[in-house]
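Hypothesis: this fold can be encoded by more than one sequence.
Test: take the C-alpha cells below, design a sequence, compare later.
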C-alpha cells in the first residue's frame, strides 16, 4: 500500500490518503478515528489489514491536489546514518567506519515534501543528500537482525539538507544537520510488501532540473535496513513512528570541484525507485525584523 498524509484544502486538518496510481482516497473521512497522520495505522495492524482488504473507494481525487504533511506529525526519534555508502565515505575524506556514524534530527529541522527548503541567512553552503527513510512499525529493544524487517511499517524518501560549514564547526554534526526546514520527507510512504526486502536494489537519485547530482543504488549501503535496526536497538528502544534515515550515496555538493551548493529559485528532487519523488523549492531565509520594546513616556516630576 501507498499512503500520503496531507490536505487538499490549505488551512484544513490533514488526512491520510490511500494512493493508487495518480488517484488518492481519503481514509480519514472513510474511517472516523483513524487520525490525521499514520500513527493509528502504524500501531493498529488490524485496522491496516482491514484497509488493505477494502482497498480504495469513491470518491477519489488527484494525488497532485494534496498538499503533503509529515507522515508522522511528532516522531519520537529521527535517527540518521551519516556514512553508509563507501564512495560517499571516500569523497568526504573519512576512514571506512566499523560502526555507523549516527546523529539525531530535531522536529523543527524537518518539513514535508513540497515545502520550501530554507537556505539560512548565515550560510550559503546548503547541500543535498538523497536518502532512504524507514518508518518503524513495531518497536523493540535488542531486535534480532534476522527478524528486524518485521519491525518496518514502511519506506519513504528523505533529503538530508545539510549546512556544511556548520557541520564542520564541531566533531558532532548536530548544528549542520538541524537548521530549521532543511530535512524534507515524503510525500509517499510505501509498505514493505510493495518493495524488495529491506528496500534494497532501488535506484536513488538527486536532480535539479536536468542536472543529475547523485545516482546510485540502495544495494550499495554498507549497513542494510535490517542490520541498522538491530544495531540501533542495542542502545535504544525503537518505538512505533520512529524514523531512520539510511545515509546518502556519493555526489554531494561539498565534494565537487567547485562545490555545488543549492541556490534559491532551484527545485531539488530526490527520487527512489518504487517509492517516489521528494521535491523541494529552495528559498532564502527571511529574517523577521528585530522587535524592540516600545519607549515608555517620561514621567513629569
Amino acid at each position: 500500500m501507498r499512503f500520503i498524509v496531507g490536505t487538499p484544502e490549505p488551512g484544513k486538518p490533514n488526512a491520510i490518503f490511500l494512493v493508487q496510481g495518480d488517484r488518492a482516497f481519503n481514509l480519514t473521512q472513510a474511517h472516523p478515528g483513524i487520525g490525521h497522520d499514520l500513527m493509528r495505522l502504524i500501531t493498529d495492524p488490524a485496522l491496516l489489514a482491514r484497509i488493505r482488504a477494502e482497498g480504495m473507494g469513491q470518491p477519489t481525487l488527484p494525488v497532485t491536489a494534496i498538499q503533503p504533511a509529515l507522515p508522522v506529525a511528532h516522531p519520537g526519534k529521527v535517527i540518521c546514518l551519516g556514512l553508509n555508502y563507501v564512495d560517499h565515505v571516500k569523497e568526504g575524506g573519512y576512514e571506512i567506519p566499523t560502526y555507523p556514524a549516527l546523529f539525531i534530527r530535531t522536529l523543527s529541522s524537518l518539513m514535508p515534501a513540497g515545502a520550501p527548503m530554507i537556505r539560512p541567512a548565515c550560510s550559503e553552503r546548503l547541500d543535498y543528500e538523497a536518502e532512504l527513510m524507514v518508518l518503524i512499525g513495531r518497536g523493540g529493544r535488542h531486535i534480532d537482525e534476522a527478524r528486524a524487517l518485521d519491525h518496518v511499517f514502511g519506506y519513504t524518501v528523505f533529503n538530508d539538507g545539510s549546512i556544511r560549514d556548520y557541520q564542520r564547526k564541531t566533531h558532532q554534526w548536530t548544528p549542520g544537520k538541524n537548521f530549521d526546514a532543511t530535512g524534507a520527507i515524503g510525500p509517499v510512504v510505501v509498505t514493505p510488501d510493495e518493495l524488495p526486502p529491506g528496500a534494497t536494489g532501488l535506484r536513488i537519485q538527486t536532480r535539479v532540473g536536468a542536472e543529475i547530482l547523485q545516482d546510485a543504488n540502495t544495494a550499495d549501503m554498507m549497513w542494510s535496513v535490517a542490520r541498522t535496526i538491530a544495531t540501533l536497538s542495542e542502545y535504544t528502544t525503537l518505538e512505533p513512528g520512529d524514523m531512520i534515515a539510511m545515509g546518502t550515496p556519493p555526489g554531494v555538493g561539498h565534494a565537487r570541484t567547485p562545490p555545488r551548493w543549492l541556490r534559491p529559485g532551484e527545485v531539488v528532487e530526490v527520487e527512489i525507485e518504487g517509492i517516489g519523488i521528494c521535491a523541494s523549492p529552495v528559498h532564502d531565509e527571511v529574517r523577521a525584523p528585530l522587535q524592540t520594546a516600545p519607549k515608555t513616556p517620561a514621567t513629569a516630576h
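The first helix runs from residue 27 to 30. The two ends are 76 Å apart (CA to CA).
Hypothesis status: open.
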